[in-house]
Amino acid sequence: MQPVQPHLDFNETIQVDCVDRWHVYHRLEQLAIPCLYQYGQPLRVSVHDAVTAIQLWSVLRQVTASRQDHLQWLARCWQGSA
């Protein structure tokens, strides 16, 4: 875990359950998106451009979408490539 840089503006607060929050935090770290994880607190993320916003949306969708949503998305992808 890297130390948090105090000059960063954590302008987004993400409410997900504690297990998902840990997974989201680690994935955001892998993507080099500044975030702050504290036990029992919402995840705080620094989002200042469209690419970061889309990456955050994608990571959150991976952990919050239902299995059925994932299956429907996969089916649409296969239909589009045929």
* Total helical segments: 3
Largest sheet: 3 strands, antiparallel
Overall number of domains: 1
Shape: globular
- Spatial gap, N to C terminus: 43 Å
Task: Provide the gyration radius in Å.
Answer: 15 Å
| Overall pLDDT level | 86
Taken in chain order, the helices and strands follow as EHEEHH
Helix content: 40-55%
Strand residue percentage:
5-15%
Q: Trace the largest sheet across and list its strands.
A: 1-3-2
Low-pLDDT regions:
none
DSSP E strands, number: 3
Q: Structural class of the helix and strand makeup?
A: mainly alpha
Oligomeric state:
single chain
Report on this structure.
The chain has 82 residues and is mainly α. It has one domain (12-81). It has 3 helices and 3 strands. It has helices spanning 18-30, 50-64, 67-81; strands at residues 12-14, 35-36, 43-45. A 3-stranded antiparallel β-sheet has the order 1-3-2, with helices on one face. A hairpin with a 6-residue loop joins β2 and β3 (43-45). α1 (18-30) packs antiparallel against α2. The mean pLDDT is 86.
